[in-house]
Amino acid sequence: MSALVVASLVWTVLATGFSGVALARLLRARRPSPSEGTRPPVLLLRPVDAPTPRELENLAAPIDYAGPLEQVVVSPYRPRLAPGVRWLPSDPLTPNRKVGHLLYALEVLQTRGRVVLAVDADVAVTGALVEGLAAPVASGAAALSTAAPTPVEPEDVASRAMTGLLRYTHHSFRALDVMSAGAKAVCGKALGLSPAAMEALKELADHIGEDLELSKRLHARGLDVALSAAPARVPVGSVGSWSTPLARFTRWMQVLASHRPALYPTVPLLFTPTLPLVLLAAVLGSPVLVGGVAILVVVRILLALRLAALSTATDGSVAGTRVQGPPSSPTGSTEPRTTTVDTGLPYALTDWLLGEALLLAAFLCSLWQQGTVTWRGRTYALRPGGRMERVVPELSGGPG
């Protein structure tokens, strides 16, 4: 048996064991029963710069939350909003404009006696999501709450790859949550902020991946992060070009290398090993290696199916239907449109592999782009913890 076969077998065993542990922990996970009692008052902040038609639709959708709720859109220009949704003008100069929007809103709005949530405009907010984010913060059980980003309604192969990555692989935030050691995995698309988290956020206006740094700083203080039972549903539709998700996750790999350098090498070793190992098994022709890789594929499929089961019907929506475009919505529709909810189950068997391929490609691209990141049309040097320093054009070879 050659050294390459032995090394490949060791890699296969490690990857299979990693997936097996995650699967076992996810099989023990149970959906919490709906909580009873008074819902806390909530201030829902929606930071956005230039909302797309889909995002305008999300901002206009009614939110079935049983408690007091004020929704405030924080943006430079006033978008067309549904009745009852407030607009707060904001045009921050900070490198991280989202954090700049939030800091300005927290400075001028009344937060006392209310749980503050920050949810991106591409998230279709439900009452279950609001409750899932607000409850642990209001009870004091967590200093920060987050929700698993769950892409829905993919319409092409590129969007299916992105959906597969975030729903059916180890990069799903449900899988990341059960496998986290130390600071919890956090997605900045949907956050519940305690006073301690709001105070820590003030130091992150020049950071990319502020959610990771926020989790790290709170963990260092002994404060907990809670994962909402309800997901943050993100309608994706048609992405079109593969370059869009590839650029997004390449940037994410650069951010990961800056925030968690020890975790960065585990991406190809544990998170995306299937395609390289299948290729090695085919080239080397070792029956033992082929059998080991086959077991890995089976375990990964079972993991994808378990994640698909956990991500369906957890947001409190009516199974089988979803309403888009409420009457007089900013998108111009005057009647509700009913479409089928994306349960994810038909795609889980195949799209986990598309997701792994996307993340592996993003990792490889990030190897050639270490040290800098291009974000919102500007290039920054990345420092430890995701801190960004603007690259002066003259020093980067650009026009002076």
From TrEMBL:
Renumbered to this chain, region (Disordered) spans 317-340
Pathway in which the depicted protein is active? Lipid metabolism; sphingolipid metabolism; Sphingolipid metabolism
Q: Which controlled-vocabulary keywords does the entry list? A: Glycosyltransferase, Membrane, Transferase, Transmembrane, Transmembrane helix
InterPro entries in the record: Ceramide_glucosylTrfase, Nucleotide-diphossugar_trans
Can you tell me where the transmembrane regions are? 277-303
**A GO molecular-function annotation:** ceramide glucosyltransferase activity
Question: Per the annotation, which location comes first and is thus the protein's main one?
Answer: membrane
Localization terms from the record = Membrane
- BP GO terms, sorted: glucosylceramide biosynthetic process
List each coiled-coil range. Answer: none
Compositionally biased intervals (Low complexity): 330-340
Q: One Pfam match, by short name?
A: Glyco_transf_21
This protein's membrane topology, according to the annotation, is: Multi-pass membrane protein
Q: May I have one GO cellular component term?
A: membrane
Name it: Carotenoid biosynthesis protein
